[in-house]
Design brief:
Strand order of the largest sheet: 1-2-3-4-5-6-7-8
Distance between the termini: 26 Å
Bound molecules: 3-methyl-2-oxobutanoic acid
Largest sheet: 8 strands, parallel, barrel
Strand content: 5-15%
Number of helices: 10
Number of strands: 8
């Protein structure tokens, strides 16, 4: 799809029922995100989520899915200690049914990505706002705003590509920066709050279905509005990603 220039539609997914629904209406990629900490568990962040919990939800998603590509998030504390720890954790997710694992951060993560890739584990990297390090970042705020921070993100993206990452998620960065990183990357770049020029888009399922309590980030669109059912909302999301009408440069972009 990336090679053909077709936009990739990704959503988070945490259980078999939604996996069946999302896969059935054409979502290309299911992310078993550690956002389940907030969405399912009511936690204040993704930090408390454990590997065991991620394994359980990955198994659930894999059972409901038929054709979508399944990415499993390596949770906080499951890959930072050593490359060997990352391999053990990634193995657990792959054996639970993930086809790719995602880990957050740049710089120090590149050797870990290389280590996993060499051992046959496809890796998705995640740069920009990295929720597992929200306390170090000082909150959920836009990243890569000034020239220096933008240059660091570009360098980290290059290093991760060189290390063998097969996909990159960019979260909450200016659209111009995401466009530059996407243009320079041979791998698909999936944006969330990163503008329309990425190779695809991802949203938290419960956000786009308007099930999340409180104020949503600006980059989220409520696809339930005007939809007769959850399936209809997801179908409209897929269509909007494919025809580039989501995200809207005026409404959902920085
Ligand atoms: O856990 C998650 O839902 C994610 C997305 C925000 C990309 O990592």
């Amino acid at each position: 799809m990336h090679g053909a220039g077709e936009k990739i539609a990704m959503l988070t997914c945490y259980d078999a029922t939604f996996a069946r629904l999302l896969d059935g209406v054409g979502v290309d990629c299911l992310l078993v995100g550690d956002s389940l900490g907030m969405v399912l568990q009511g936690q204040p962040s993704t930090v408390p989520v454990t590997l065991q919990q991620m394994v359980y939800h990955t198994e659930c998603v894999a059972r409901g899915n038929r054709t979508a590509w399944v990415v499993g998030d390596l949770p906080f504390g499951s890959y930072q200690e050593s490359k060997e720890q990352a391999l053990r954790s990634a193995t657990a997710l792959m054996q639970a049914g993930a086809q790719m694992v995602k880990l957050e951060g740049g710089g120090w993560t590149a050797p870990t990505v290389g280590f996993l890739v060499e051992r046959g584990i496809p890796v998705c990297a995640h740069l920009g706002l990295t929720p597992q390090t929200v306390h170090a970042l000082g909150g959920y705020r836009i990243q890569g705003r000034d020239d220096e921070a933008a240059a660091v993100l570009k360098q980290h993206a290059r290093e991760l590509v060189d290390a063998g990452a097969a996909m990159l998620v960019l979260e909450l960065i200016p659209s111009a920066l995401a466009r530059d990183i996407t243009a320079a990357s041979p791998i698909p770049v999936i944006g969330i709050g990163a503008g329309v020029d990425c190779s695809g888009q991802v949203l938290v399922l419960h956000d786009m279905l308007n099930l999340t309590a409180g104020k949503l980030p600006r980059f989220v669109r409520n696809f339930m509005q005007g939809s007769a059912s959850a399936g209809d909302a997801v179908r409209r999301y897929v269509a909007a990603v494919k025809d580039k009408s989501f995200p809207d440069p005026e409404l959902h972009t920085y």
